[in-house]
Amino acid sequence: MAQDLSQNLIPTRYRSVMFDRMEIALHDEYGSKEYWRARRSMRYNSELYDIAEDYRKTFLNSTNKNDNTERPADWTKEKNRRNARGGPYLAVHLRRRDFIVAHKASVPTIMNTALQLQKRMAKLGLTLLFIATDAEQYEFEELKLYLPQYKVMKYVPSDYVINKFKDGGVAIIDQIICSYARCIHNRCTILQHVHIIDSFSRYNEKILKHKIVKQQRLHESRTARVLTH
């Protein structure tokens, strides 16, 4: 695979190459050991991590040290472990806007969403709730009114973040924050939290993959096994 890429990308002419999707370069190896090694090696822009980490520390009482989610800068130095706790908050991706039209039958009302979240928060024993959403501000405020016993937060980017990283960067910051949330059980993933609100989102898949990459254990048989907290 690497040899084919080297021939086709003309490395002597171009200094940089952009892949719209990493699956393009790894198509023949999708799901294999090498695929997951490549996924583990990738990192978002470090400033995005810093922004997400600062937000977690400031608003969600979450730090890598306290949550046992510290990671070495060199991905090859990561070790398999099962003691990561995640931050003391529930993270949810709440789809609204165009999704209400495209999947009207499967999208709950704000009130129904709040009822689901109340049950989940009570089961977890948490008081912090992080919402990644494209909802209008009045919908977010309505949700908060239904959940007065909890601290309900969403990430609001600064003008600097919007101008530098655009909507895509803001979405990644949301994803990073979500990926560090605490699980319901010791074998639960953040995707299960999100599914109670939206079972169709590619965004949720990205959150899960981000979480998987942090916890990945590779088999000698060239298959990947997902280890959850």
Structural key phrases:
229 residues; mainly alpha; Rossmann fold; 2 domains; 3-stranded parallel β-sheet; two-stranded antiparallel ribbon; 11 helices; 5 strands; globular; disordered C terminus
Percent helix range:
40-55%
Q: How many domains, as an integer? A: 2
From N to C, what is the helix and strand string? HHHHHEHHEHEHHHEE
Order of strands across the main sheet: 1-2-3
Mean pLDDT: 76
Separation, N- and C-terminal Cα atoms? 33 Å
* Helix count from the secondary structure assignment: 11
Percentage of β-strand residues = 5-15%
Silhouette: globular
Give a quick account of the main beta sheet: strands, pairing sense, barrel closure.
Answer: 3 strands, parallel
CATH class of the largest domain: Alpha Beta
CATH architectural category of the largest domain? 3-Layer(aba) Sandwich
* Class per helix and strand makeup: mainly alpha
Rg of Cα set: 19 Å
Number of DSSP strand runs: 5
List the uncertain runs: 184-205, 215-229
CATH topology of the largest domain: Rossmann fold
How would you briefly describe this protein structure?
This protein is mainly α and 229 residues long.
SSE topology:
Layout: H1 2-8, H2 22-25, H3 33-41, H4 46-59, H5 64-67, E1 89-94, H6 98-102, H7 110-124, E2 128-133, H8 137-146, E3 151-153, H9 159-179, H10 190-195, H11 202-215, E4 217-218, E5 224-225
Parallel strand pairs: 1-2, 2-3
Antiparallel strand pairs: 4-5
Helix pairs in contact: 4-9, 7-8, 9-11
Descriptive overview:
The protein is mainly alpha-helical and about 230 residues long. It is built from 11 helices and 5 strands; from the N terminus they run H-H-H-H-H-E-H-H-E-H-E-H-H-H-E-E. The protein has helices at about 1-10, 20-25, 35-40, 45-60, 65, 100, 110-125, 135-145, 160-180, 190-195, 200-215; strands at about 90-95, 130-135, 150-155, 215-220, 225. A 3-stranded parallel sheet has the order 1-2-3. A two-stranded antiparallel sheet has the order 4-5. The model is unreliable at about 185-205 and about 215-229 (pLDDT under 50). It catalyses: L-seryl-[protein] + GDP-beta-L-fucose = 3-O-(alpha-L-fucosyl)-L-seryl-[protein] + GDP + H(+); L-threonyl-[protein] + GDP-beta-L-fucose = 3-O-(alpha-L-fucosyl)-L-threonyl-[protein] + GDP + H(+). It is an enzyme of class 2 (transferase). Pathway: Protein modification; protein glycosylation. Its EC number is 2.4.1.221.
